[in-house]
Fold:
Amino acid sequence: MEQEIRAYALDIGFDDVGFTTADPFPQLSQALEEREGGYCWVSSELLQLAHVADPRFVLPKAMSIVVLIYDYYKQDYPPELLGVVGKAYQSRLYVGKKRLFGSRLRLMREFLQEKGMEVGFRPSMPERQAAVRAGVGNFGCNTFIYSSGRGSYVAIAAMAVSAELEPEMQESASKCPADCRRCIEACPTGALYEPYKMDPLRCIAFNTYGPGNFPGAPDDIPHEIREKMGSWIYGCDLCQDACPRNQKRLEKKLVPDAFLEEMAPKLAPAALLNMDDRYYYEIVQPVLYGYIWEKKFMQRNAAIALGNSSDKAAVPLLGKALADPQEMVRAYSAWALGRIGGAAGLKILEKALVGENSARVENEIRLALESC
Ligand code: SF4
Ligand code: SF4
Structure:
């Protein structure tokens, strides 16, 4: 059965497959308890991470876990999206069943069911820990999983199944050189504060989708973090791109992804800030769906990126966004205008202050005026 599962998974495009028991992952529960502050949002209905540390929460009859590895660095990413959208998000890994990755997961699930197994799958399953235990990946100090010969640009899916499957490989240990700290040094916010430890509340990737969106997460992105987010609007790859274990991968010349090349200008922060619903639902959301479910979060992230660009050409766009019906968009656009500074921004902010009726936005405008 293990051979059949493996052959089918490789046939539909996964790159590696492993098996492990459905025993709980006590180290995950322990880590969540120890770092409760940073993980205040994980117990939400959405993720229920504390529960999924036991695969039997997902599937009461679970006996094994099938771990699937998908290498998402098979084509070159457009340079325009470098530092803007994380590679995992550009790869459409987090979009629904009508895209390739979602379809592969559906096919795999159906295959296992046809073989008589019950299948439990949740994207929040402890997939990284399962990959290590199944011997198909090992942790890097940056908390990402490295798959042999592929680096860390891999997506992992863990499916709990009701059949007893024989693990083929041994648990894999980290292969990071003892003296390497490049990922920690590359992290602009200090989110990666020591090897294998990351504070999500400081992580740029989390801040592009968590605040105001995930139940239990903070409402706002702290000013100090906004300034360090640079041009990222979704995700962040810095601690992976800096890693020597990924360099061969990054240096390899691949075929460009024609679809992404066409999409790249449409996903630029300047194109997103004042987009209408149609643009969001027809162009942006089908590609960058995942953790961001509302247009305003993309607009917020676009405002931050434009603010950090220091580009005066963004001032009129941000001025227009100060009239957006969403309080969040107005608040972050005010911040961005203050960050860019200058007389034109000052004038726009003063005018906006007069007509503003939200205390939150008013506060951001006043702070922005002080920086202009
Ligand atoms: S994803 Fe970015 S912000 Fe998050 S830990 Fe890595 S480098 Fe730091
Ligand atoms: S940068 Fe160095 S320490 Fe960090 S994950 Fe890569 S090899 Fe490990």
